[in-house]
Amino acid sequence: MFGYVTINKAELKVKDYEKYQGFYCGLCHALREKYGLLGQMTLTYDMTFVTLLLTSLYEEKSIYEKEHCMVHPTKRHMVIYNRFSEYGADMNMLLTYYKLLDDWKDDRDFKALIMAGLLKKKCRKAVAANPRQAKAIKEYIVQNKACEDAGEHDFDKVAGCTGRMMAELLCFREDEWSAYLRQLGFYLGKFIYLMDAYDDLEKDKKHGNYNPLIYLAEEGMKPEQVEAKALDMLTMMATGAAAGFEKLPIIVNTDILRNILYSGIWGQYNRKPKDGKEIHCERSI
What we know:
The protein is mainly alpha-helical. Helices cover 67% and strands 4% of the residues.
């Protein structure tokens, strides 16, 4: 479901793109160091955003290095990492670990059970270090599945599961910025859930999968009305996330972070065909 919180490369300066890539590779570096090759395979743009956001907010000093890796075997590339890279790696793996356990519980997926077993010992340390966030992830998976199994029609209820989880992931610690980080995370999480539902709408219709947007059509909305409703809800969620971000006293990497929140998160929406109509979404700063 994740992977939507990324940059709009075309709108970034070269130096900012290189810095963003450095943080992305820094998260990959942290995943490799803490969780090995299996950890690297779970790398996401979403946790790169979390790493960059928290680094910028708390003005964390970072290590800058140049490395070779499997993706760049012949040319060294910039790697930027700090304690928030490790935090992002922990969150990435906890999401993966609890999802694997859920897949085993629900589908008796032995591959998921084996992978969860390989991660169990290392993830135990991540749970101990981040009990509040680990609890939020576990509750998100249980509550989200319960909503989907019940065929929940209320978008706010089902998307709220992802929102509450993201709120806790962005809130690194309880301090004067917690409320704003939770606001950003809550609306960003709801945006992610709805964007995923919008992206998968036709596929879910075809295969009979749960998708809250399907119910809009069943309630009598025409396709263009469903499209307009989805855009309206996405815009509200993006606005709420941006409002939380703008309350934070961030003075570094703001161009990159705003690129993500005002433009990058709309990437998949803008790429999806819309019955021959050209619709481009991006919020002004």
